[in-house]
Amino acid sequence: MAVHAHPDDESSKGAGTTARYAAEGNRVRVVTLTGGERGDILNPAMDVPGVRDRMSEVRREEMAEAARILGVEHEWLGFVDSGLPEGDPLPPVPEGSFAAIPLDGPVEALVRSIREFRPHVVTTYDENGGYPHPDHIRCHEVTMAAYEAAADPDRYPDAGEPWEVLKVYYNHGFIRKRLLLFQEEYERRGEEFPMADWLKKWKTEQGDLMARVTTQVTCSDYFPQRDDALRAHATQIDPNGSFFAVPLDIQQKVWPTEEFELAKTRVTTSIPESDLFAGVEESGRR
Ligand SMILES: [Zn+2]
């Protein structure tokens, strides 16, 4: 089960991994906490009448297509996108939105989904949200609380039979070393690196998240599916944007994995891992 804040996050974080596990015959469910109602139209070609005024419907259609491409099941939990607050100081998130409401409702909804789907492995974001959006930080808090509560028969007794998730992972997408290796590959080819500015702006003092990575899942065969799924979120993704700047063959050759951090486990495993299900079979709890 991959828990995400907004429609499109499932296609930009760990998408190759979910597509791979689904293709290998596992049931994979993406759970999206909010409807993405406050997403801006980030693709100029989609900023046309008939799109902006039916944004939440458009995002549902986009999400259904992305799930189809990734080969995963999908569930909406129905909370309201908080939007990305901008300004200094930051304005409060809108009343009633996902990041503004008490944790209890979202935790219960996710506990219900976990007890029904009974996943062995759950992925979410780290305590910083992986990206400083209030809904992403909230996604972390809700998932971690639901991991504990789903297993506890005294919590939410009306939300199904208790279920112990065996492992929880954080997605780690922003790996500086990955871009450095891409840059080296461009230098070797005598070509200009299209993301050089991005790399220059990257503050090294943030530290490299690679230090936190415990698990690298090879999924380069599924990068085309990942990109197609992301492009299905046509209002959110500029096909000429930086995500698609580095050609797939370079990505597949230089960095064929996606990165995760094992945050919680109820099974024995050894680090580093190359499989999110490492230790699950051996535990006899599959
Ligand atoms: Zn998001």
Automatic annotation (TrEMBL):
Pfam families: PIG-L
MF terms in GO: hydrolase activity, acting on carbon-nitrogen (but not peptide) bonds, in linear amides; zinc ion binding
SUPFAM superfamilies: LmbE-like
Biological processes, Gene Ontology terms: mycothiol metabolic process; mycothiol-dependent detoxification
Keywords: Hydrolase, Metal-binding, Zinc
Span list, region Disordered: 1-20
Bias kind Basic and acidic residues: ranges: 1-12
Enzyme Commission designation: 3.5.1.115
UniProt catalytic activity: mycothiol S-conjugate + H2O = an N-acetyl-L-cysteine-S-conjugate + 1D-myo-inositol 2-amino-2-deoxy-alpha-D-glucopyranoside
Residues binding Zn(2+), per UniProt: H6, D9, H136
Enzyme class: hydrolase
Protein family: Belongs to the MshB deacetylase family. Mca subfamily.
Biological role: A mycothiol (MSH, N-acetylcysteinyl-glucosaminyl-inositol) S-conjugate amidase, it recycles conjugated MSH to the N-acetyl cysteine conjugate (AcCys S-conjugate, a mercapturic acid) and the MSH precursor. Involved in MSH-dependent detoxification of a number of alkylating agents and antibiotics.
Protein name: Mycothiol S-conjugate amidase
Naturally occurring in which organism (per UniProt): Rhodococcus triatomae
